[in-house]
Design a protein that fits this description.
single chain; alpha+beta; Double Stranded RNA Binding Domain; Ribosomal Protein S5, domain 2; four-stranded mixed beta sheet; elongated
């Protein structure tokens, strides 16, 4: 992919800050404070990525997180550009997120970090439930993990060596 095309793709990505935390390092000379930021980027059409960054200042940490998120952008399988093909669970650490497709017009039924990931991925109708730990970073990553394992009917048919109509 040419560099110019890559840049135009990244400029279309929206970003949303999921969490900002203050990190403390205790040394002999006292405490050193830094900030960590977690950011989700997406184009609301099936591309989404998560990144984290750490710096001495909040805006700098956010900038680093956006750069990291742009590097980790992945494609998400959507049906009719509104929902996911099937139910799935994503697990990262002790956080687990269950996502289920929903009927048209239902909206994004999810909370916190999972909602940010799903909205920026372009999912319009979905039900998500956070199970286990509620750590924002891990919940966001688990949601992305659940989205990555989605298989469209066309992909399943290709794996089985059949036509979509045969399924």
């Amino acid at each position: 992919m040419p560099k110019q095309e890559k840049d135009s793709k990244k400029s279309l990505l929206e970003e949303k800050v999921v969490s900002i935390g203050r990190v403390t390092k205790v040394t002999k000379g006292g405490r050193h404070f830094r900030f960590s930021a977690t950011v989700v980027v997406g184009n609301r059409k099936g591309l989404v990525g998560i990144g984290t960054g750490k710096a001495n200042e909040v805006p700098e940490a956010i900038k680093k997180a956006i750069q990291a998120a742009n590097k980790n952008v992945s494609k998400v399988a959507l049906i009719d550009n509104r929902t996911i093909p099937h139910e799935a669970t994503g697990k990262v650490g002790r956080a687990a997120v269950l996502i289920k497709p929903a009927a048209e017009g239902r909206g994004v039924i999810a909370g916190g970090a999972a909602r940010a990931v799903l909205e920026l991925a372009g999912v319009k109708d979905i039900v998500a439930k956070s199970l286990g730990s509620n750590t924002k970073i891990n919940v966001a990553k688990a949601t992305l993990e659940a989205l990555k394992v989605q298989k469209t009917p066309a992909k399943v048919a290709a794996l089985r060596g059949k036509k979509v109509e045969e399924l």
